[in-house]
């Protein structure tokens, strides 16, 4: 089935293990749009902080490291890349050390301010060059692009999310157990939902999509229906449907 091209921003939020990243990339690729993984940007800054060997509780020093780090996030949905100070760190930022530290680093207000500004710049550039972008993270609809024409909050029960995460880790060659992954999922949920700045939550006007019983094709189909229903598909002539 052919689809038009995306015009505007689709904001996808939700905790890890909901299928958010895979669905966001596939949606962007299907609709000829750009894709932004904001979580990868926070992970890259976290890696910079870990490499600097600073105390995660020293928010001032953490903010200084973040400010000095050069993070470049690619927006090609078929090849999403993350570079830190000129080096590709796409694999390293998914390791257990970064996963454990990313929540406290991303909770630092100055870090969020810095990265949100860069995310907005990337989004504006993508809209100018490609016309549409799918942005995924934890505060896209509430803080990064609060005026996005379509906001979707993906959710799923913790056990299902842990199983997906464990499967992803195994496929990537990272060692993990289901119990450990479930504990990590619950830890991040609690930390991200309770932080003072931009806590993880659904925007008031977001569509909540439960993916517990959905596979990737099912999630993608649901998202495509929502994009179409919100009039964000342009036909080849450039006319937006609606």
Could you outline the blueprint of secondary structure elements for this entry?
Layout: E1 5-6, E2 8-13, H1 20-30, E3 34-37, H2 38-52, H3 59-68, E4 71-73, E5 82-84, E6 87-88, H4 96-106, H5 109-129, E7 132-137, H6 140-144, E8 150-155, H7 158-171, H8 178-194, E9 207-210, H9 216-229, E10 233-234
Parallel strand pairs: 2-7, 2-8, 3-7, 8-9
Antiparallel strand pairs: 1-10, 4-5, 5-6
Kindly summarize this structure in a few lines.
With 242 residues, the protein is α/β, with parallel strands linked by helices.
Describe the protein's architecture and organization.
Residues 10-224 form the Cytidylate kinase domain. Belongs to the cytidylate kinase family. Type 1 subfamily. It holds the Pfam family Cytidylate_kin. This is Cytidylate kinase. The chain is an alpha/beta fold. It has one domain (5-234): Rossmann fold. Helix content is 49%, strand content 16%. It has 9 helices and 10 strands. It has helices at 20-30, 38-52, 59-68, 96-106, 109-129, 140-144, 158-171, 178-194, 216-229, and strands spanning 5-6, 8-13, 34-37, 71-73, 82-84, 87-88, 132-137, 150-155, 207-210, 233-234. Strands 3-7-2-8-9 form a 5-stranded parallel sheet, with helices on both faces. It has a 3-stranded antiparallel sheet with strand order 4-5-6, covered by helices on one side. The chain is globular and about 50 Å long. The two termini are 19 Å apart.
Question: What is the CATH architecture annotation?
Answer: 3-Layer(aba) Sandwich
- Cα-to-Cα separation, first versus last residue: 19 Å
Put simply, the count of helices is 9
Bin the strand percentage.
Answer: 15-25%
CATH topology: Rossmann fold
Main β-sheet, spatial strand arrangement: 3-7-2-8-9
Q: Determine the CATH superfamily.
A: P-loop containing nucleotide triphosphate hydrolases
The top level CATH class name: Alpha Beta
Q: Tell me the count of domains.
A: 1
| Cα radius of gyration in angstroms | 17 Å
Pick out the low-confidence regions: none
Average pLDDT for all residues: 90
Topology, number of strands? 10
Helix- and strand-based class?
alpha/beta
Oligomer: single chain
Rough outline? globular
Helix content: 40-55%
Keywords: ATP-binding, Cytoplasm, Kinase, Nucleotide-binding, Transferase
EC number: 2.7.4.25
Main location: cytoplasm
Domain Cytidylate kinase: 10-224
């Amino acid at each position: 089935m052919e689809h038009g091209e995306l015009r505007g921003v689709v904001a996808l939020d939700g905790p890890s293990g909901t299928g958010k990243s895979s669905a966001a990339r596939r949606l962007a690729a299907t609709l000829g749009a750009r894709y932004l993984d904001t979580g990868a940007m926070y992970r890259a800054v976290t890696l910079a902080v870990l490499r600097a060997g600073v105390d995660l509780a020293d928010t001032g020093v953490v903010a200084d490291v973040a400010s000095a780090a050069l993070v470049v996030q690619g927006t090609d949905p078929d090849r999403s890349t993350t570079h830190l100070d000129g080096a590709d760190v796409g694999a390293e930022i998914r390791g257990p050390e970064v996963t454990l530290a990313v929540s406290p680093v991303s909770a630092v207000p100055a870090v969020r301010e810095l990265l949100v500004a860069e995310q907005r710049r990337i989004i504006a550039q993508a809209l100018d060059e490609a016309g549409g972008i799918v942005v995924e993270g934890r505060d896209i609809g509430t803080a990064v692009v609060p005026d996005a024409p379509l906001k979707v909050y993906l959710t799923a029960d913790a056990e299902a999310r842990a199983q997906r995460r464990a499967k992803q880790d195994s496929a990537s060659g990272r060692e993990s157990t289901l119990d450990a992954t479930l504990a990590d999922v619950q830890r991040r949920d609690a930390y991200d939902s309770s932080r003072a700045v931009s806590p993880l939550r659904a925007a008031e006007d977001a569509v909540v999509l439960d993916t517990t019983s959905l596979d990737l094709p099912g999630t993608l189909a649901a998202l495509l229906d929502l994009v179409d229903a919100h009039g964000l598909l342009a036909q080849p002539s450039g006319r937006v449907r609606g």
